[in-house]
Amino acid sequence: QQQVKQSPQSLIVQKGGISIINCAYENTAFDYFPWYQQFPGKGPALLIAIRPDVSEKKEGRFTISFNKSAKQFSLHIMDSQPGDSATYFCAASKAGSYQLTFGKGTKLSVIP
Amino acid sequence: DAGVIQSPRHEVTEMGQEVTLRCKPISGHDYLFWYRQTMMRGLELLIYFNNNVPIDDSGMPEDRFSAKMPNASFSTLKIQPSEPRDSAVYFCASTAGYGYTFGSGTRLTVV
Questions:
Q1: Residue A77 pLDDT grade (very low, low, confident, very high; cuts 50, 70, 90)
Q2: Does B25 touch chain A (CB under 8 A)?
C-alpha cells in the first residue's frame, strides 16, 4: 500500500520555467511533509518542509503548497536551472514519529 | 562534521555470500534508519533504531536480513545469504529531529 503517491515520474522543464511536482496522501495522521533532493550517486538531502498549519512555505526559488482538505501538497521550483536537475522525493510522517514514508520520486531534467 | 558515513560505497558479491554494510551516524543523532532504494520500489524503510534499540523492523524483507546497532556510533546491515534480487542501493540516515541526513549509500550488486 503506497501511502504517499507522487507524480509525475519524470519531468522535463526548460531553463527559467516552473517545475511542479505533486504528492497526495491518505493518512490524516500525517503532520510533517518534507521534500528531499537527490543527485546521482548521492543520498537524498532535505530541501524544504511544511506542517499542515500553513498553506504555503517558500525558501528561495522553492515553494511548498499544501492543501489539507484535498490531502495534497506540491513542490514548485521557480526559474528552474540546469543545476536543479535531480530526483525529488516527497515524504510524510505522523505526529510524534520521525519515521518518514517516501513517495516514489520524480526525476527532473532542466534543459538549457 | 563528516556527515553520515557508509561503507563500502560499492559491493559486488556472488549469490549465497554474506554481505555486511556499515554506517556511522552523525554524533548526537539518536535515530538511525536503513533504507533500500530501487527503481521499482523507490525508497523503502527496512529498520530504524532509537538510542541503539531497534524500534521497527517490519520493513526487513525476510530472515536473511539482520541489523544491529551495538553503540551510538555504529550500525550494520547484514544479508546472509545474498540473492540477486537484493541488488539495490542501501542508505543509512540519522536524525535528532525531523530532518534526516543520509549517507552516500552502498550500491550492492549480487551476481
A1: very high
A2: no
pLDDT for position B98: 81
pLDDT of residue A74 exceeding 80 = yes
Query: In this complex, is the C-beta atom of B74 within 8 Å of any C-beta atom belonging to chain A?
Result: no
Which chain A residues contact residue B4 at CB under 8 A? 43
Q: Amino acid identity of B33?
A: F
B15 vs B7: CA distance, rounded Å? 20
In B, minimum Cα distance to A43 occurs at B104
* Residue A9 with chain B: CB contacts under 8 Å: none
Interface contact flag, A43 B105, Cβ < 8 Å: yes
Residue A1 has pLDDT above 60, yes or no: no
**What pLDDT sits at residue B2?**
80
| Beta-carbon-side half-sphere exposure of residue B14 (alpha carbons within 13 Å) | 0
pLDDT of A70 strictly over 90: yes
Q: CA B84 to CA B13: how far, in whole Å?
A: 9
| C-alpha cell, B41 | 520500489
CB environment B26-46: b (16+ within 10 A), e (fewer)? beebebbbbbbbeeeebbebb
Asked if B64 and B78 count as a contact pair (C-beta separation under 8 A), the reply is no
DSSP per-residue letters across B83-105 = -GGG-EEEEEEEESSS--EE---
